[in-house]
Structure formats: structure tokens, C-alpha cells
Inverse folding.
């Protein structure tokens, strides 16, 4: 693709390690300022991009540069299904801080990214914290849950992406790949090339070192022993702790297996007990990389965990990208990051649109919700069904591709 000139500028909020910045930079944008207050993120960003990162708390009243694009998503730990959801978590309020900066700076377009738990956090209130003020201000918005494997990322990573244009209708980027290897994916985008696999992601990496820092950085491992080695020896590709004898399971396994998620859905309806340790499958997209991936994911063929660099490869970071902080900091930065390849697909789509954009002289009185796609599944949790119903009632999404789904769900909810 032809690179655009760097006249389009970006402000990257909650930038973390810089996955979003890297993707937009590769698409030809000029990231003029990034913001985070996690020390390891700030040092990582400076090392890889330079000194245009600002170490600030976005809850403060900030004087940030005006840019064509604002990207980012509030830290996900307050919403994430990978941990305990906390009502009133102060990180959840950062959605409002993010919105306030957009309203103050008036970018032509914003890009929002978050975990799928964002849709149901605190009864779905964060969805309306995001949408209501921005639609009222004049932004036309898509809000969709996507699988990063559909955009060329070698992992099944479900995330919520919001794209909004001030006074214009942005087009949501079309998927580039056919996902496979996860429930519900085999019928999607059958005319597209298959998503890259874990084998593709790790191709060309030499054997890891036994000692930190490894070559490339982070490509080292700790030899398994004791019960950890016993588990690894028994697990075949695709198997998890569920497939182990009870005496080899974590002590907390049975207790966690009986937990109920906050929205009232029994765990057995969400795939059963937690997977704990998992042997990955080489020839499918990887499971989602999180901050726990290095301790939970076993290499498909070797009796060891993934290395930090292998996790970074799955997240599509290049081998010359340097992560700072402790090993725990580094895997957390990688797990929280927007995959640069996903960010680049979004950025390249927006670049074409911005090149041909003609904005109205006067700001619109009000915007709209162009599309809302909360799930690919046929079944909704009780909370997600209520959130979807409220979204339909408040915003009446106009996208023809999804309007039938909305009408069906609204009809079912009213019975």
C-alpha cells in the first residue's frame, strides 16, 4: 500500500508499550504525543519511539496537543474477565476522562480499544459513558467486538473497537483473514486467506536461551521441574488442566471451577472450569496473550512455557522492539497491548478515508451510532442482552448489516 505523508497527526492515550502507536506509524501517521503513567510503559515507549511520551494521569486537567486522531482505551483490568471485576473500580472512570479529552480536542476521528468485558462492566454503564456524550457532540460511531485473527493477528483475541468521525461517517475496516480453530469461526469470511497460526508467528526464532535477557530480548525460559514438568509431559496439543488427573491440578482448581460469573451465567455454560495450564496448538491461531500467558501457556511441542519474546511475536511486535521493566512488567505490557498489525489495518483504512475527507464548515448538532455488534454468538448473557436492548432504544443503530439482529434481539427482549 502507498504510504501517506505524515500530515495526519495522532495523540495516543493510555499508550502502554506502544502497539497502537507502532501500527499507526507504520501506516504513515505522525504520533506527536502519547500518554501513560505506568513507569515500565513510559520507559518502553521512550526506548522504542522517543521522548514524545508524557508521564501523566489522565484524570488530571491536561493541556494536550490538538491532533487529527485520538487513539486509546482505558486500562482494562477494571473490566477484564481474566480477573475479578470490581464495581466502582477507579480505572473504569477513565472512560469518561478519555471522552472528555476527545470533546475538548475535537479530533476528526477517534479509535477506542478495550477488552470484551467493557460491554458488560457495571451493567453496561461504561458503554453509555462512551457513546452518549460523543454522539451528542456530533460523532458518528461504530462499536464492534472483533476477533484480532480476522485482521491478520496470529491469535484469537476478542476486543471491542470503537471508531468515530466528527461530522462524517467512517467506514469500519473490513476483515482481512478467515479465523479458524475456535468455536463459531469456521463459517466466517470463508473467501479470505486463513489467519496466521502460532507456527507462523514463531517461524525463524532460534532456540531460546536458559538465561535472561535472551536473544532476541526476552527469548529465554526456565526449565520446568516437579509437578509443572509432570503436567507438561501429560498434556497434548489443545489440552488443558481439565484433562489432567485431579492430583495434578492446581489447589484452587475445584473452587474456581464452581464459581459463577457476575452476570449470573453458570460457569458450565461458559466452557466449564478454568483452563489453568494449556498446551497450545501449533497450526491454529494462538489463544489470547494476556499477562498470565507466560505461566499458563505451554509450547506446542516442547516441555516449557512460552518465552516473553514468543508472546511478543504472537502480539505481532517485531524482534527489535525492546520491553523495559521487570519480567512481570514486560509480559504485562505485552498482554495489555494493541497488536501492532491490528492497529495498522485500522490506520491504513482511516488513512484512505482522511485523504479524501471533506468536513462540513459547521459541526453537526448530533451524531449517530452507525453500527453496534456486541457478539458473533447466537446466545447473549442476561447483561449483554439488556445492554443491547438499551443501545437499540437509545441510538437506533443505522447499519443495515446489523439492523436485523438488533430488531430480533429487541423483539425477543420484549416478549
Amino acid at each position: 500500500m502507498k504510504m501517506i505523508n505524515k500530515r495526519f497527526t495522532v495523540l495516543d492515550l493510555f499508550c502502554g508499550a506502544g502497539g497502537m502507536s507502532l501500527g499507526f506509524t507504520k501506516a504513515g501517521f505522525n504520533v506527536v504525543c502519547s500518554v501513560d503513567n505506568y513507569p515500565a510503559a513510559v520507559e518502553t515507549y521512550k526506548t522504542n519511539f522517543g521522548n514524545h511520551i508524557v508521564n501523566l494521569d489522565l484524570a488530571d486537567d491536561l493541556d494536550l496537543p490538538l491532533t487529527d486522531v485520538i487513539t486509546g482505551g482505558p486500562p482494562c483490568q477494571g473490566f477484564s474477565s481474566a480477573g475479578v471485576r470490581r464495581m466502582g473500580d477507579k480505572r473504569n472512570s477513565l472512560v469518561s476522562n478519555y471522552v472528555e479529552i476527545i470533546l475538548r480536542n475535537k479530533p476528526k476521528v477517534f479509535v477506542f480499544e478495550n477488552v470484551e468485558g467493557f460491554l458488560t462492566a457495571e451493567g453496561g454503564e461504561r458503554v453509555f459513558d462512551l457513546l452518549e456524550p460523543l454522539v451528542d457532540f456530533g460523532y458518528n460511531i461504530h462499536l464492534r467486538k472483533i476477533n484480532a485473527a480476522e485482521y491478520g493477528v496470529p491469535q484469537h483475541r476478542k476486543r471491542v473497537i470503537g471508531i468515530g468521525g466528527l461530522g462524517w461517517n467512517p467506514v469500519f475496516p473490513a476483515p482481512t483473514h478467515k479465523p479458524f480453530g475456535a468455536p463459531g469461526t469456521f463459517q466466517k469470511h470463508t473467501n479470505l486467506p486463513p489467519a496466521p497460526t502460532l507456527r507462523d508467528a514463531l517461524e525463524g526464532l532460534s532456540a531460546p536461551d536458559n538465561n535472561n535477557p535472551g536473544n532476541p530480548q526476552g527469548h529465554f525460559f526456565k526449565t520446568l521441574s516437579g509437578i509443572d514438568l509432570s503436567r507438561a509431559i501429560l498434556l497434548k496439543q489443545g489440552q488443558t488442566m481439565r484433562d489432567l488427573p485431579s492430583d495434578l491440578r492446581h489447589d484452587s482448581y475445584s473452587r474456581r471451577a464452581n464459581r459463577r460469573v457476575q452476570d449470573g451465567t453458570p460457569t458450565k455454560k461458559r466452557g466449564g472450569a478454568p483452563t489453568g495450564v494449556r498446551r497450545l496448538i501449533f497450526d491454529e491461531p494462538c489463544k489470547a496473550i494476556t499477562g498470565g500467558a507466560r505461566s499458563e501457556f505451554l509450547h506446542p511441542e516442547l516441555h516449557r512455557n512460552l518465552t516473553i519474546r514468543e508472546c511478543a511475536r504472537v502480539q505481532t511486535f517485531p524482534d527489535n522492539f525492546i520491553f523495559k521493566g521487570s519480567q512481570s512488567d514486560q509480559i504485562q505490557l505485552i498482554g495489555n497491548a494493541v497488536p501492532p498489525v491490528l492497529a495498522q489495518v485500522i490506520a491504513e483504512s482511516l488513512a484512505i478515508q482522511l485523504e479524501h475527507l471533506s468536513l462540513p464548515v459547521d459541526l453537526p448538532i448530533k451524531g449517530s451510532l452507525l453500527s453496534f455488534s456486541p457478539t458473533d454468538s447466537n446466545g447473549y448473557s442476561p447483561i449483554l442482552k439488556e445492554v443491547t436492548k438499551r443501545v437499540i432504544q437509545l441510538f437506533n443503530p443505522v447499519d443495515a448489516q446489523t439492523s436485523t439482529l438488533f430488531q430480533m434481539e429487541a423483539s425477543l427482549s420484549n416478549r
In short: The two ends are 50 Å apart (CA to CA).
